[in-house]
Amino acid sequence: MRSWQRSSERILDGTKYAASFGLGCLTGVGLSNEEAGLIPTEEWKRKTLGEKWYPSETYDAAIGQGFVSVTPLQMVSMVSAVANGGTLYKPMLVKEIWDSDDRMVKVFKPEIIRKIPIKEENLKIIRRGLWAVVHGDRGTGRKSRIEGLDVAGKTGTAQVA
User: Domains of the chain (ranges plus CATH)?
Assistant: First the structure.
């Protein structure tokens, strides 16, 4: 087996990790027309398009290109899970509801979807990379630095077909 084939298979296994981070899945936020997005697989392409999967498509998917489609809310959920140590929460758009008499009617509590099966050392590497996006000398988000605030970032370019 060629080395690129082995690499391709390992990257394709990453679709399981993508799903564990909530990518390509409904978030459960309760929006009526929420889209699940897509983390493509060989099986998906064969069933949907009736076409063979090419190794180059694995590499495209690994960097979020090609057939990959995720929502902004999925990206926020994923980054939040990285920041908090690997717990994926159901997104909340409302924390509390108050009535016109200034009484609290309802409180929404955080709901855990799952604990992501990822080693802490790997989370640290990802966090360091996200931090370097803003604070690194060559970080693509370095212009967003805010004096006195220690933040991380994720930049990217949308692929237009």
Answer: 3-144 (3.40.710.10)
